[in-house]
Task: structure prediction
Amino acid sequence: MTISASVRVPGDWSLDDSLPGTFVALAPELEGALFRPTIVLTSAPTSEPVHVVSSEAIASILASGLRAQVLSVTAEGLHGLSDRSIEYGYDGDRTWICVRHWLAVVEDQQVHVTGSCAVEDFDDFGPVFRSVLATFQTEQTSSQGQHRE
Result:
């Protein structure tokens, strides 16, 4: 048995199932938008504590080649879990991209929920990401869960 993680996304968001084992939700396409907001949920086995997993995530962000700038790292304690929230940004093709990357270690799994949007949309998207993250749940199963509102 493994841990299955899930979140609920707004009903008008579409799901992209092109990456096996990865939950990707996309906001509705808007004409003239500079970047389409996304939410991504992934998990992987780990034997490391959350501070090591978060350090590895930050190192990966900085090494991504995106010239990312880490803005903050905080422990939030959401859902009673040992977690970290990493906020960072990078230059996209047409605008600066804001990313909220929440991660936690649940039993022997590291779980990552990442929300991305254009800097112009951050005031609107930030609360959506928080509401999606509030629906985060885990259960013991054999595959990663995917849910929508």
The radius of gyration is 15 Å.
